[in-house]
Amino acid sequence: MSEGVEWGLHCCMVLSWLDDRAPIPTARLAEMFELPPEYLKKRLQPLVREGILESTPGSRGGYRMARTPERITLMDVVGAVEGRTEAFRCTEIRRRGAGSTAASSEFAKPCGIAGAMRRAELAWRRELATQTIADLIADAPANAPTRARRFYDRLTA
User: Fold this and answer.
1) Closest residue by Cα to residue 155 from 52, 18, 49, 9
2) Which among 82, 77, 75, 20 has a CA at the least distance from the CA of 50?
3) pLDDT per position as a tens digit, 100-124
4) pLDDT tens across 43-97, in order?
């Protein structure tokens, strides 16, 4: 999984905490994480395309949450950033080399490795789909929202 998932989740939390100050300019949001603004902008664009964030162009523009934190799952963010393709792709290498001489009946059932990986991925996706940005916010340190607001206010002063 790319860093974009981590940045996307953290930005969703911060944007939720700063909702009354939105839209939050890309440059200010990037400063909060010591990231180059263009890097962060590229990481947030998929979240805008998926309707997780809204982007307002212009000098007074920036980002804001498009949905409430309760309506955004971790899987929504992962899917937006990483895409919805399966993590493991079986290429049937068991049919190559020594397997090339095996009877086709040996391959009637899906490969046990592919099945195990698919079950693990489904469990992972189900778990991420049960957790929301609101859950992350609830688990954050109590002073995190205040710290984010103070930091942002210093940037805009």
Assistant:
1) 18
2) 77
3) 999 989 898 888 999 999 999 999 9
4) 999 999 999 999 999 888 999 999 999 999 999 999 999 988 888 888 888 889 9
Structure tokens belonging to residue 72: 């955004």
pLDDT in tens, 12-45: 999 999 999 999 999 999 999 999 999 999 999 9
Closest CA to 78 of 142, 151, 149, 4: 4
Query: What residues does 132 pair with on adjacent strands?
Result: 73
**Cβ atoms of residues 39 and 30 within 8 Å:** yes
Biggest CA pair distance of the chain: 73
Tokens linked to 146 = 């205040």
**Strands, E assignment, the chain:** 53-56, 62-65
Token code pair at residue 13: 């939390």
